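Recall that a protein's primary structure is simply its ordered list of amino acids. Everything else, from secondary elements to tertiary packing, is in principle encoded there. The following example makes that idea concrete.
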Amino acid sequence: MRFGLRGRRGWVLLLTASIGGGGLFASGLTPERAVEAGLPPVLSFGAGPASLAASLDGEAFDVVVWNAHKGRDEGFARAFATLVRHADLVLLQEAWAAAPGGGGSAMQRAMLRARGLGWRLAVSWVDPGPPLRCTGVATGARARPVGCERLLSPATEPLVGTPKAALLTRYRLRCDGDRSSTLLVANVHLLNFVSTATFARQLEQIGSAIARHRGPVLLAGDFNTWSEAKRDRLARLAQRLGLAPVRFDGHGADSDARTRVFGHPLDHAFVRGLRVLAAHVETTGASDHHALRLELACERARSHEEARRPQAASPTAGVR
């Protein structure tokens, strides 16, 4: 879905249809029925464990976050290859891949051509085809995950009845000297055409999982924060969890080129226990979202005196 003037009109029409109960319905397998049919909740493909590193390099690692629109837009394969060429972590929303035994997809072929990345895809919906294909969020990494968990949204999109998914993966992060920790990467896609209360339920589900993790955290994805109320809920959750928003306006107030609807950015990234070395938006016409690129590093070990100093910056300064 495009987000220019025509896209804004489309959002209004779909919201009106949602309220009025009119006509779109998805045909496919729910995630629960897919599991009953023998499909795993998380698909694995790409580079195998033996070819992946044991840990990410905490001195600096490159991250791409992108709602890729199922790879349907013209120029996707070329744009994707350029975006992920040097990435250590890739967080995709609206990923589209073959179920085991199903036919391939153009998007999955592009993902497989990105050498050195092992992929995990949290299934949110299954198209029975033929061929049998799955959509959801996918995380690619140059390191082996040490844990992986899918979270399905407590509610579904109106009319179409499809849930959204979050994928929590954990990786060893090699920091200065012999120090290492476990990095939690939360790749999320929030429900879109729902009330703020329903949106907040999914957000709290994700927040509860993050709260249980004691190490560094990267939370990023398409949050569908197209209203002030939803952005406020996200900011409050981030503050409660000690997550600092990544700013994308480093070149001035007008340089934040994130995709917006009704003036609000949809895509966000938050960190805890990590330093942001660089962050910018990669503008592209190969999806209905622009991509986020981050360079992150381990938080420096703080001296006893530094640890006692109060922190001046608000953890939600860049959300609004």
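Confidence is low (pLDDT under 50) at residues 1-25, 303-316. The two ends are 24 Å apart (CA to CA).
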